[in-house]
UniProtKB/TrEMBL annotation:
<feature type="domain" description="T-SNARE coiled-coil homology">
    <location>
        <begin position="124"/>
        <end position="186"/>
    </location>
</feature>
<dbReference type="InterPro" id="IPR010989">
    <property type="entry name" value="SNARE"/>
</dbReference>
<dbReference type="GO" id="GO:0016020">
    <property type="term" value="C:membrane"/>
</dbReference>
<dbReference type="GO" id="GO:0016192">
    <property type="term" value="P:vesicle-mediated transport"/>
</dbReference>
<protein>
    <submittedName>
        <fullName>4927_t:CDS:1</fullName>
    </submittedName>
</protein>
<dbReference type="InterPro" id="IPR000727">
    <property type="entry name" value="T_SNARE_dom"/>
</dbReference>
Amino acid sequence: MATGDPFFAVKEEVEQNVTNAEALFQSWTRIYIEFDPARFNLSSKDVESRKSFVEVTRHRIQDIRLTLSEPPAQSRKNAKNQRQELFEGGRQIFSIDDYSSRSRSEEVELDNTRFIENEAFQQTILVQEQDEQLDSLYGTARNIHAIATTMGAEIEDQNILLDDFGHRLDSAQSRIDRSMRKLIYIIKKNE
């Protein structure tokens, strides 16, 4: 493993990009269920049920936040005002309740519209992020291909050099063998 070997750096980058792409794909699948429920064996009633659950949960959390954000003294003051209004005139309170229920339904409808717009916006962002991740992954794969091609060419060059070296070594060995035989012949003749 050479210190200048780019394979391991590229491998780590590719693994990270694949992990990101898988996470984005799972997120996309979750959002896609809403737009094509039949593909996931869900009825429109199931999707509406899920949306309703999310909306109810969102309102419950908003109510909790409102309760927690009001200081205790202020909420006692509000409770005192509400009791006083009840004793002063029940009819007026009833008509306010009618009005608040209408505004509540309008508020729910507005919240639903905002939720749908928000989900569509988030889906658009996710699709853009997925496109960027896939482009990055494609670029990384192209880089790996280029590196592999370069490495293959270098290996072929090294094989050619090794073959040439092997032929030269064989030739030198043959000359050495001939020279050794001549030396042995000369030594035997001079003895």
